[in-house]
Design goal:
With about 375 residues, the chain is α/β, with parallel strands linked by helices. It is about 25% helix and about 25% strand. Strands 3, 5, 6, 9, 10, 17 and 18 form a 7-stranded mixed β-sheet that branches. Strands 13-12-11-14-15-16 form a 6-stranded parallel β-sheet, sandwiched between helices. A 5-stranded mixed barrel has the order 1-2-7-8-4. It is globular and about 65 Å long. The mean pLDDT is about 95. The structure holds nicotinamide-adenine-dinucleotide and zinc ion (2 copies). One zinc ion binds next to loops.
């Protein structure tokens, strides 16, 4: 079948709308009509060349929602009409990581970010030439053929466009605070960078019982939204945030700092480490350029103050259970999602959507596909 999609042909490069050929589902696969896709900064990292792609051209987009329109062989439990949220790391349920509560690190995810399948086959092509699917997904396409391991079923009565956020931004941000930063009642937490990820770290920290949640972003609109959704303070830089954290902790510093800056650098991480107390946790969720490595933090400072720098992939979430938990919180009005969608775009407007992200206009922009 044919599908319209945003293709990245070179990096750095722009998204180009093209009509592609899509193969139907094989064994263990689903054909999904994509309803909506979030414009996550990670896709933009591909476009800017921050993260290398092994196989260009690629259709990116990994934060998606849709409806199953066809099921392949051996897809027990799946039916046409099922509503799904995508999982940007597939989960096999059997490897060491899946079977010990770390689905986000599933071994089958190793190659998928780069758009390859284990057997090297592809489902998308253009004039017979292969096109890869970021994370085995490609939610910047109207239709996608994906593994059942990359899909999580959700109840049919949820608004599917908004639900796309539960594929990345919500579990990543929420889990970065709740799981990775181990926020506890009474904690003081700094969230650095209030985009689609950071706003959910704010919500997660507040929900986990933090009494002081300090949002840091240079953009005023982001700070206002953070204050609406759980932050107790919102400032423009880390120096101010560190002062506030110390003022609430007898000079000790924040219990944790969650870094969700769009282009995260070693300097941002050093600021986070500086802001936390003894034995505090600095969570690295944001991604930077592959080229810019190195964190200017004194090893002795880490040792003597027993601080922890903790990377976090998808907020250490187990999407097969956490997606349902988050949709329930949403239905109970305890997790705000509608408020996170600043603007809806057509697929053709994807470059404008990313320009708006860089200009600080959106908490999250989403593409709503037309079929
Ligand atoms: N670890 C994961 O599993 C995972 C998953 C998804 C996204 N990410 C990464 O998380 C990061 C955030 O993604 P997003 O979609 O929310 O991006 P975004 O661009 O929507 O938001 C980033 C925010 O950081 C702010 N910012 C920039 N410089 C800052 C600074 N010095 N101090 C404080 N704030 C600053 C920007 O104003 C913006 O509001 C990206 O690097 C993305 O690739 C990681
Ligand atoms: Zn993402
Ligand atoms: Zn696994």
């Amino acid at each position: 079948m044919k599908t319209r999609a945003a293709v990245l042909r070179k990096a750095p490069g722009e998204w180009e709308i093209a009509e592609l050929d899509l193969d139907g589902p094989r064994q263990g696969e689903l054909l999904v009509r994509v309803v909506a896709s979030g414009l996550c900064h990670s896709d933009d990292h591909l476009a800017k060349g921050d993260m290398g792609m092994r196989l260009l051209p690629v259709v990116a987009g990994h934060e998606g929602s849709g409806v199953v329109e066809e099921v392949g062989r051996d897809t027990p439990g799946w039916s046409v009409g099922d509503h799904v949220v995508t999982s940007f790391v597939p989960s096999c349920g059997r490897c060491r990581w899946c079977s010990s509560g770390m689905q986000n690190l599933c071994d089958t995810g190793a190659g998928t970010l780069w758009g390859t399948r284990d057997d090297g086959s592809v489902r998308l092509s253009e004039h017979g030439r292969p096109i890869s699917q970021m994370s085995g997904l490609g939610t910047f396409s109207q239709w996608m053929t994906i593994s059942t391991l990359s899909a999580v079923k959700i109840p049919g009565d949820l608004p599917l466009d908004v639900m796309c956020l539960v594929g990345c931004g919500v579990p990543t941000g929420w889990g970065s605070a709740v799981n990775s930063a181990q926020v506890r009642p009474g904690h003081t937490v700094i969230v650095m960078g209030i985009g689609g990820i950071g706003i959910n770290a704010v919500q997660g920290a507040a929900h986990a019982g933090a009494t002081t949640v300090i949002a840091v972003d240079p953009v005023e609109m982001k700070r206002e939204v953070a204050l609406d959704l759980g932050a107790t303070h919102a400032v423009g830089d880390m120096a101010a945030a560190t002062d506030i954290a110390r003022s609430f902790t007898n000079g000790q510093g924040a219990d944790s700092c969650v870094i969700c800056v769009g282009i995260t650098t070693g300097e941002h991480i050093a600021q986070g480490v500086e802001a936390i107390r003894k034995a505090g946790i600095c969570v690295i969720t944001g991604i930077g350029s592959d080229e810019r490595t190195g964190i200017p933090v004194s090893p002795t400072h880490l040792t003597l103050f027993q601080k922890r720098i903790q990377g976090s992939l998808c907020g250490e979430s187990n999407l097969n259970t956490d997606v349902l938990l988050m949709t329930q919180l949403y239905q109970q009005g305890k997790l705000h999602l509608d408020e996170l969608v600043t603007r809806r775009y057509r697929l053709e407007e994807i470059n404008e959507g990313y320009a708006d992200m860089h200009a600080g206009k959106n908490i999250r922009g989403i593409i709503v596909h037309q079929h």
